[in-house]
Structure formats: structure tokens, C-alpha cells
Write a structure and sequence with these properties.
Layout lengths: L1 H22 L11 H5 L6 H21 L10 H10 L1 H10 L14 H8 L1 H21 L2 H10 L1 H27 L15 H9 L12 H13 L1
Helix pairs in contact: 1-5, 3-4, 3-7, 3-9, 4-5, 5-9, 7-10, 8-9
């Protein structure tokens, strides 16, 4: 099942690249009417600016998800950093290269302070609140007609919208594999359908889980399990 899912992720990743490069509608580069306004955060359409901002919040949520247990053979941090500029283009390869259903054998790569920050309820609460405010602002004050027109005339808006949808679906996959590893109900994956917020809820719910965690290297965890079994 894991191999099949990784192959499907590879197909999706390649299809997304081909679409973005050759088939995305609208003007690109300097001719894109929304490129400069969005990059300089001066767009006058709340719905577009909100979507652009959410694509900056999504990588923060994935950072909380991945960096707290970054002990796989393939490190997560390079993909997380790239995701701030490339979104799903950067995160999909991590899940393609890494089996996320089994605990790794590598010691964690980050300082304890960073790991604690990724599991902090304060961090999760701030991200949750900011995301909720940005979503509400875009939905309440945005013009769907303007967004629809920009989707067809701006390559940036078109690709970033699909990127947002892919990140949402990737959240479902990430929660599903994480739930399997923790022996939690796999129906929790449905939380991922709530963009960013669902991922943050799952992260908060599992922040104190020590079964795959963090603070004890995997070899030490194995020794502790053996001692527990003999004790």
C-alpha cells in the first residue's frame, strides 16, 4: 500500500509540474497582471491576497508536522524550507522518498528548543488564529468574480490555487500515515480536508505522543521497550 501511494504521489507531482510549465492558462512572467501586486502584498483584492498569504501559512503547519519527528533517512528540513517558495512542488518529493508509516532509525537533527516549539500549543494556537483570520478576511471581503477572472488570466493565481488544493490533499495523506503509525483512527485523515486548520488540530492532538517521539533517540527507545518487556 505504501509503495502504491508513493507511486501515485510521484504521478501527481510530475503532472503538476507539467501542468504548471505548459498548460496553466493566463499570462505569465512580466505580463501576469497579478504577479507584482501579490509579490509586493499590494493587491487590492482580499481573496487573492488571502490565498497568497495562506500559501505562506501552510508550510508553517507542515514544519510543525515534520520537524518535530525529523528522524527519517531523508531529512525533512530541506523540503520544508523549499516549501515556503514552492509549496507542494517541494513537499511532495519528501513523501515520495520517505515511508512515513514506520519510525526511522536516525537520531533527530534539530535542537531541542526547535522541537519543543513545533509541539508547543502556543505555536499551534497562533498559527490557528492567524489562519482563521486570513480565511475569514478573504471570504467575507473578497470578490469571487474577481478571483474567478484572475484564475483564468493569471498563471500565478491559477497555479497557486491548485497548489493550495494539493497541499490540502497532502494534509489528508500526512494525517492518514501519521495516524497509522500511532495506531489512531485513520478516519482522522478527514481533518486534512479543512485546509491548514485540520492539520493544526491533528498536530495539537498528537503533540504529547511519545510513541514516535522526539526526545529519545530510536535506539534508546528500543532498549526501553525491551526493558519494559522484561520488567
Amino acid at each position: 500500500m505504501t509503495r502504491i501511494s508513493r507511486v501515485l504521489l510521484l504521478v501527481v507531482w510530475l503532472a503538476f509540474i507539467v501542468y504548471a510549465l505548459f498548460f496553466a492558462p493566463g499570462a505569465g512572467g512580466g505580463e501576469d497582471p497579478w504577479l507584482r501586486p501579490l509579490l509586493t502584498l499590494q493587491a487590492d483584492e482580499p481573496s487573492l491576497l488571502a490565498m497568497f498569504s495562506l500559501l505562506g501559512l501552510f508550510p508553517l503547519a507542515f514544519a510543525c508536522m515534520l520537524l518535530r519527528h525529523d528522524d527519517r533517512a531523508v531529512p525533512a528540513w530541506p523540503f520544508v524550507i523549499l516549501s515556503f517558495g514552492l509549496g507542494a512542488f517541494a513537499l511532495l518529493p519528501y513523501y515520495i522518498l520517505t515511508s512515513n508509516t514506520h519510525a526511522g532509525s536516525h537520531d533527530l537533527r534539530h535542537p531541542q528548543g526547535l522541537r519543543k516549539a513545533t509541539e508547543s500549543s502556543i505555536t499551534h494556537g497562533i498559527l490557528f488564529t492567524v489562519t482563521l483570520l486570513v480565511m475569514g478576511w478573504g471570504l467575507l471581503l473578497g470578490d469571487l468574480g474577481v478571483y474567478r477572472e484572475a484564475f483564468g488570466t493569471s498563471m500565478l493565481v491559477n497555479v497557486m490555487t491548485l497548489d493550495f488544493l494539493l497541499l490540502t490533499l497532502l494534509s489528508v495523506y500526512a494525517i492518514y500515515t501519521g495516524s497509522r503509525r500511532r495506531s489512531l483512527p485513520q478516519a482522522m485523515a478527514l481533518l486534512g480536508l479543512i485546509p491548514i486548520l485540520g492539520l493544526l488540530i491533528y498536530i495539537w492532538m498528537t503533540r504529547m505522543d511519545q510513541s514516535v517521539s522526539p526526545y529519545i533517540p530510536s535506539q534508546t527507545q528500543s532498549k526501553m521497550r525491551r526493558r519494559a518487556g522484561t520488567g
